[in-house]
Amino acid sequence: MKTIKKRIIFIINALFVLFVIILIRIGYVQVFNGTVFVERAFDLWTRNIPVSGRRGRILDRNGKLIVGNTLAPTVSIIPQQIEDKERAIYEVSKILNMPMEKIAAHFNKNVSVEIIKPEGKNITLEQAKRIVEANIPGVYISSDVVRYYPHGNYLSHVLGIVGIDQQGITGLEYIYDDYLMGNIGSSNIFTDAHGNKIPGLDGNYSSPSKGIDLYLTIDLDVQMVLERVLDNAVSQYDPDEVFGIVMNPQTSEIIAMASRPNFDLRNYQDYDQEVFNRNLPIWKSFEPGSTFKFLTFAAGIEEGVFSPEDKFYDPGFAIVDGVRIRDWKAGGHGEQTYWEVIQNSCNPGFVEIGLRLGKEKLFKYIDDFGFGKKTGVDLLGESTGIVFDIDKIGNVELATSAFGQGNSTTPIQIINAASAAVNGGNLNTPYILKGFGIENTIIYQNDKKFVRRVISKETSDIIREALERVVALGTGRGAYIEGYRVGGKTGTAQIAVDGKYLQGEYILSFLGIAPMNHPELACYIGITKPKTYIQYGGTVVAPMVQEVLAESLNIMGIEKQPDGIPLAPRYWVDKATYKVENYIGKKRALITFHPFYRIKIEGNGDTIIAQIPEPGELIAQDDFVILYTD
Predict the structure, then answer these.
(1) What distance in Å separates the CA atoms of residue 296 and residue 350, rounded to the nearest whole number?
(2) How many CB atoms within 10 Å of residue 430?
(3) If one looks up domain 47-215 in CATH, what number appears?
(4) Which of 44, 338, 482, 522 registers the highest number of CB atoms within 10 A of its CB?
């Protein structure tokens, strides 16, 4: 009996101790861990509908918007909340214009939240409105954003594309994705285990954050000019490709860059990858032709193998190791100075400079100016070009290299090397990122990066004069701009395929720089296989560069030369140029002949109301001034 009583007392005591332990545990859970368990419960109840963060904007050097963001709703569903699945599938498929079986696959997934993508991502406001009006339980609209391009597809290859989840895929969007990408927010809904909303618990909204803004060295107004000029070239000449780049020669900042064919940034899937993955100014590698000659000229001056005033006779060809290398001009240029050798783009003259230099010295300058390797520009997809292996070339390869044939280069290599040749002799690394910004304030500023000195200041001064002579007196007259000292170099390069040059197919190019007394703008434009015009860089591309430079000088506030142009341009070697008089307002009867140019009057009126060329512009001897009457 005592044993039973002891057992009962023991059990009672044990139960009491257990009860106390349970009370302590409950108290501990409620007092100390209550918050943790509530949070865990809310995590189980919460259904998160993600909301994209706003990517940082991309702006030009002056703070003008290039890429922004705009509202683009996204359709999400909580499958367990769908009450009438057939109706829901029908309504959503009709609004999104999707096959019902494709929509059904989303509704039948065993997930807490399903985003309908790609078709339900970034839908129109009208589609979002229709889905809201359909009032389908379990179907939600979240406020996402997509990229907004106020200037269409300008700068497309540089900017790059953004995927449906707002991640950068190519271009600057990819390179600086970690900076541009904002943190994702969410719209939260509380449901039970069956997916039904929990009464009395309202969802909350976690706001997404904005990414960091990019400021570029691009001048948007200059970019628009370049884009327009390239579009006009496509329309007029029907080429395979056109590419252009504008640079500040003093710093190697990229002011504008564009390629054709172009593509739609919002619908890049409609294009071949070759179109949107190839940024031609940094990717395309080709034999540059005569635009390369500034380097040979600079190397020869720096090494003292000739003086600009020295005489050279061009019979129309040069013979090197028994190989006859023709000049572009049949019959040659005859006797000329080395100033005229570069003015007239005389191939035999450059062969002579190359042979005097020797391959070691010439190829040292080719390497120093940055050819055969990447410039280091902060863009994806840059090519290195291809330079002869110095140990495997003879005098013939040396001769052709001297006038731009044999080695392949990229447009950015050419314009960057030319910038070094005219800025005093300093090679810099090209760049397009000006800095990072938050709320219209730049928090990091990029700066020029000096690489090496390639020639002396004295040689650079001579190169500036040589290139100015090309535009004033030589093959680049089409690039002359009234009131500015303009330099340049033409290029008409054969296209090599499998080691052979294609007949009658060329890459035409022109390198233009202004003003030559202190270069602030360099422009290089190339056009591949134009089909509707005589194929010379000086006649086709020089006027394109002239248009870009003329408008860019005005945009950037670079004033005209106040004290005249030292090298007066001449449009033909044997003809001088003269300023056109002002005939506007004069009576027809009083217009007499001019001793240096001819006059043609259009119309039957008595008074002159307009004229071409404008008063004060230059005209070649014996050309016509056309006067229009009232």
Answers:
(1) 7
(2) 29
(3) 3.90.1310.10
(4) 522
Structural domain boundaries in the chain: 2-46, 47-215, 220-555, 577-629
- According to the 3-state scheme, what is the secondary structure of 300-333? HHHHCCCCCCCEEEECCEEEECCEEEECCCCCCC
Q: Which pairing describes strands 598-602 and 624-629: parallel, antiparallel, or unpaired?
A: parallel
**CATH code of the region 577-629:** 3.30.10
**SS3 per-residue string spanning 556-600:** CCCCCCCCCCCCCCCCECCECEEECCCCCCCEHHHCCCCCCCEEE
- For 627, the enclosing helix (H) or strand (E) is strand 624-629
φ/ψ of residue 82, rounded to 5: -70, 120
Does the pTM exceed 0.85?
A: no
Known catalytic residues are 290
Q: Tokens in use for 498?
A: 């499998």
Q: State the 10-residue block means of pLDDT for the chain, 630 residues long.
A: 69 73 66 52 50 82 93 79 81 83 81 76 80 81 82 95 86 94 61 54 59 95 96 91 97 97 90 90 94 96 96 91 88 89 94 96 97 96 93 93 93 98 97 92 90 97 95 87 92 81 86 95 95 69 93 93 70 59 88 78 86 78 77
Alpha carbon 161 to chain centroid, angstroms: 13
CB 81 within 8 A of CB 137: yes
Class level of CATH domain 220-555 = alpha beta
